[in-house]
Amino acid sequence: MKARGAITFLACIAPLALHLAVLGDSTAVMVFFSLIIVLNFALYSIGRHLPRWLLIAGALGAVFLFFAYRELALQFAFLPPMLIYMLFGWLFGRTLMRPRMPLVQRIAELEHGGPLPAEMAAYARGVTWTWTAFFMSMTIVSMLLFQFATLAAWSFFTNVFGYLAIPVLFIGEYWLRVRRFPHYQFDNPLRAAINVTRRAPEVFR
Q1: Burial level of 29, CB count in 10 A (0-12/13-18/19+)?
Q2: SS3 204
Q3: Residue 110: CB partners within 8 Å, gap ≥ 6?
Q4: Is pLDDT above 90 for 50?
Q5: Cα dist from 170 to 55, 95, 138, 164, 200, whole Å
Q6: Rounded mean pLDDT of 116-145?
């Protein structure tokens, strides 16, 4: 558990570390934190269904890749930040296809302990669309910047701007919601984020 907590912490600071590594032209740091992102994802998703030895073998294989094919490893290092946006865009977007329940509606119903009124359900679907569009837009722009802009510009947009935009959008949506539905009680953004994190397997099923 301590090792998993350390990996999660490193994954949380990975975006800023990756940006600083790009600015400092540190290949080893870029590859290291990209591997941390991938390992963290593996531990919290497919890790529950795979034996530990297989994850360890995968990590050792990635280390071998870095030392044997540094240029290929460097190209790999730029993929995880963009794939994160793509993954979350898919997690939100797939729930917009019927008969699935929109992800934001599912979160809201877990928070309120039951079905939402029709007006709030429609609003939740709209918010799910917003998050889907945000993450997919971040993916597309990040890919374009990687191809046509400087690495510093790409890294700032992908590893700094994007992660600052997420809490801004999250808090902005909360501000809009409490004004649109003043007769309902809502958890503050911090408590809501903690609840979603704690119940992630149930939310992102």
Answers
A1: middle
A2: coil
A3: 195, 199, 202, 203
A4: no
A5: 33, 19, 15, 10, 17
A6: 94
The string of pLDDT tens digits covering residues 178-194 is 899 888 887 777 877 77
**41 neighbors 58 (Cβ within 8 angstroms):** no
Tens of pLDDT, residue by residue over 107-120, are 888 887 788 888 99
Residue 119, amino acid: E
Q: What is the DSSP string of 114-182?
A: SPPPHHHHHHHHHHHHHHHHHHHHHHHHHHHHHHHS-HHHHHIIIIIIHHHHHHHHHHHHHHHHHHH-T
Nearest Cα residue to 145 out of 131, 132, 161: 161
Average pLDDT over residues 27-54: 67
Q: What tokens does 153 get?
A: 């510009």
**CB-side exposure of 19: number of CA atoms within 13 Å?**
14
